[in-house]
Design brief:
Elements lengths: L5 E5 L5 H10 L5 E5 L11 H17 L4 E4 L2 H14 L4 E2 L5 H7 L4 E6 L1 H4 L2 H10 L4 E6 L3 H6 L6 H14 L6 E5 L7 H8 L4 E3 L2 H14 L13 E5 L4 H6 L8 E4 L3
Parallel strand pairs: 1-2, 1-3, 2-9, 3-4, 5-6, 5-7, 7-8, 9-10
Helix pairs in contact: 1-10, 2-3, 8-9
C-alpha cells in the first residue's frame, strides 16, 4: 500500500495549487488528481448536490487504489467532509479557509476572506470563523464568477481584472492587513490580487499547510512511500477541457501523465 497514490479531487483545476504543494513536499509519492470541471463551480450548488459529487469523486479515487484522499476544495470540505469520513474508512484531508494563521498574523485585527458562496454559507466555515474571530473583524467577500473565469482560461482577462477590483478594493477601506483565499482556485490569481492590494496586505492560502498535513498522516499511518526503487507516477483526470490544466502546469517541472476521462 505504501506505493499506492495520494488521491486529490476538486471542482475543477483549482486544487492543482494543492497538488503542486503536495508533489513538491512529497516527491516520492504518486498522485492521482480528479478535476471535476464539468460540474464547476461547486460554490453555486446545494449541499445535497455537493455531497453527491464528492461521493462520486471519492469512489473513483478508491477504485484507483488511492491510500488517502485530499479534498482540495474549500466548498467540498465545508459541506461534505464529515459525511465522507463517516461513509468511508480511507483517511481524508480537508481544506478550510486559513482563518487561524490570519488571526495570528494580523496587526490591525481586521481580516478579509475571499471565498465562494458555498464556503461562506457552510456550517463548518461559521464554526471556524466563530472560533477565531474574538477581538478581530472579519470581512467576507463572495468571489462570484472567479472560478468560472479560471475554469475557462480567462485568468488574465478584462472580466477577471474587473471582478477582482470590484471585490477587493472596497474591503481595503476596512484596514485589513490579511486577505485569506478561501478557494483553491484563487492562488492562481495572487499576482493580479497583489496589483490591487500592494505589498501591505498579507495574502494567505492553505496549500503548504495541507501538504504538511498529508505528510503527517501518511507517516502516522505508516503508509509513506519508502520503497527506494519505486518511481512515482502522476496522473491527472479531467472530465472537461484539459488545455486549461496544461496551461496552469506549463511552468511546472514535474513530469506527469495527462489523462482525459469521464468519471
Amino acid at each position: 500500500m505504501n506505493t499506492n497514490p495520494i488521491g486529490i479531487f476538486d471542482s475543477g483545476v483549482g486544487g492543482l495549487s494543492i497538488w503542486k504543494e503536495i508533489t513538491t513536499l512529497l516527491p516520492d509519492e504518486s498522485t492521482i488528481y480528479l478535476a471535476d470541471s464539468a460540474n464547476a463551480p461547486y460554490g453555486d450548488k446545494t449541499q445535497e448536490e455537493i455531497i453527491e459529487l464528492c461521493i462520486k469523486n471519492t469512489e473513483k479515487l478508491i477504485s484507483l487504489d488511492c491510500k488517502i484522499i485530499v479534498v482540495a476544495c474549500n466548498t467540498a470540505t465545508t459541506n461534505a467532509i464529515n459525511i465522507l469520513r463517516k461513509k468511508y474508512t480511507i483517511p481524508f484531508i480537508g481544506i478550510e479557509p486559513a482563518i487561524k494563521p490570519a488571526r495570528l498574523q494580523t496587526k490591525t485585527n481586521s481580516i478579509g476572506i475571499l471565498a465562494t458562496k458555498g464556503t461562506l454559507n457552510s456550517l463548518l466555515f461559521a464554526q471556524t470563523a466563530n472560533k477565531y474571530m474574538d477581538g478581530i473583524k472579519i470581512i467576507e467577500i463572495e468571489g462570484k464568477g472567479l472560478v468560472s473565469l479560471i475554469e475557462t482560461g480567462k485568468i488574465h482577462s478584462p472580466e477577471m481584472t474587473h471582478l477582482l477590483y470590484q471585490y477587493i478594493h472596497p474591503i481595503l477601506q476596512n484596514n485589513i492587513d490579511c486577505l485569506v483565499l478561501g478557494c483553491t482556485h484563487y492562488p492562481f490569481l495572487i499576482p493580479q490580487i497583489k496589483k490591487i492590494t500592494g505589498d501591505t496586505i498579507n495574502i494567505i492560502d492553505s496549500g503548504r499547510a495541507i501538504a504538511k498535513q498529508t505528510k503527517a498522516i501518511l507517516i502516522s499511518q505508516n503508509t509513506s512511500n519508502n520503497i527506494s526503487n519505486s518511481s512515482p507516477a502522476h496522473k491527472i483526470y479531467s472530465n472537461l477541457n484539459t488545455e486549461i490544466i496544461k496551461t496552469l502546469l506549463n511552468n511546472h517541472s514535474l513530469n506527469f501523465d495527462l489523462i482525459l476521462e469521464k468519471f
